[in-house]
Amino acid sequence: MKTGIIFDMDGTLWDSTENIAMSWDVVVQREKPGLRRITTKDIQGVVGHTMKELEQMLFPMLEEKEAGELLELCCVEENRYLSEHGGILYPQLEDTLKILSERYPLYIVSNCQKGYIEAFLDYYQFWNYFEDMECFGNNNMGKEHNIALVVKRNCLDQAVYVGDIQGDYDSSMEAGVEFIHAAYGFGKIDRPVPCIHSCAELPQAAAEVFAKKAKGK
Fold first, then answer.
1. CA–CA separation, 53 vs 158, rounded Å?
2. How far apart are CA 116 and CA 23, in angstroms?
3. Looking at residues 17-41, what average pLDDT do you find?
């Protein structure tokens, strides 16, 4: 039986909101002087949403086409900036990935733009820990679709999605996989679920989830 762990990005593997805000603000001030400032709080408030949703949430004052073009420029600069500067890894992340990758294949699914996951993997040289990844920017599909796609593509019999916000839980349920809440991240879940308060707790939590699933409970 093939069992895998699929990770969300923001609020689960790292916090890149400050650097995203810096890179986006540079673009907005250059392209649309005086339109608005982009702050870390702004980015924290939209984490987990698709790029189409971000257009509406951050640039409601612009026509759809104009907002989309501005967001695209922001994402290009964001990928460039993060690939050079990274973000803030959650404590003990790499040690945890080393442990997990010896037991399970690991994957990433995010609602981010194309190139964002790659910027993360490039900066920290984490490519060897992950076997596959998928995102909204590749196919314009939401997280529930892409979780299911990764499960199917990699022939997983069991999988758990690790994420930090309600949307992550909802998507995992729609995709038919188990869920572990990264409670150190940005959000809360509206029902009791397995949770971790640090990356280091994940190996034990994942083992317990898979054991419970195997028993049919």
1. 30
2. 13
3. 96
